Amino acid sequence: MSKASGVQVKYVEAGSDTEKLTALVGNTIDACIVNVNQAKQYVESVKANALAVITNDEEGARSSVLPDVPSMTESGIDCTFASYNIFAGPKDMSEDIAKKLYDTYAEAAKADAVNEVLAPAGMAMEFLSYEEGSKKLAEQQADINSVVEELGLVQK
């Protein structure tokens, strides 16, 4: 976000989303990035001002949780971030079980009943093939590693 906007910020560890919002309302920190579901009550009660939402798509669609808040992309800042869920199992898991889990997840991702619950909470499912998911995850990890390095947070 800082690189995309050209705004210099000082990053500090402020804890969980709840702790960050408490620190924000208490004027201990000036801004924070938190989950929209956590921020919603603070925004609606006017205890915090939502500046923008970081969305997971490059088009910069608004959040279903806070639809009146512009996305970073919409605000002119090229900043998106997707949260990936991964099923993992032991390295010696049978192919049959792995395939069954994969197929079950793929089916759930397409189910209207699942997305009718998840979409309003800002967590609509998008199923990626194994190959596509691995590629996107690797790209995102490279981006995160770059930021960690720039912030001097690389552990040796």
Which descriptors would you attach to this protein?
156 residues; mainly alpha
Shape verdict? globular
Share in β-strands: under 5%
Over all CA atoms, what is the radius of gyration? 18 Å
- CA(first)-CA(last) distance: 25 Å
Helix content: 40-55%
Individual helix count: 6
Order of helices and strands: HHHHHH
**Low-pLDDT stretches:** none
Say how many strands there are. Answer: 0
What does the average pLDDT come to?
88
Overall tally of structural domains: 2
Structural class of the secondary elements? mainly alpha
Sheet with most strands:
none
Tell me about this structure:
This protein is mainly α and 156 residues long. The protein is 42% helix and 0% strand. The longest helix is centred in the C-terminal third of the chain and has 21 residues, at 130-150.
Write the layout of secondary structure elements.
Blueprint: H1 2-5, H2 17-25, H3 36-44, H4 95-110, H5 112-118, H6 130-150
In short:
By secondary structure, the protein is mainly alpha-helical. Helices cover 42% and strands 0% of the residues.
